[in-house]
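Chain A, query sequence.
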Amino acid sequence: MTVTYVLLAASSLIFFLADPADLDTSKEGARLLGIVFLILGAVLAGVFFLPFIARPEPWLWIYDLVLICIGMTSACVLPVCIVLLIFWIKPETKAHFGRQ
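Chain A, predicted structure.
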């Protein structure tokens, strides 16, 4: 998901650099889309990147569980999220994060 949102932020350049005639919108509309994609992509990439740099703690287990559930809203990653969720609720994983 982090890579997906980094790509979303990077795709904002398309709207900044593209000819508005190709996008069937005005130059201001293309710029607004670019800004929205950039902000949304950067914020969500940071949200999904946090577990990679944080130490395993009990609150992080819940945070990651919420991220898995957010991922389940997309049909593209639903199969991966189901498998991840099965492993996530195992006692070994909870113990790693200090949750008993």
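Residues 18 and 81 are 35 Å apart (CA to CA). The two ends are 28 Å apart (CA to CA).
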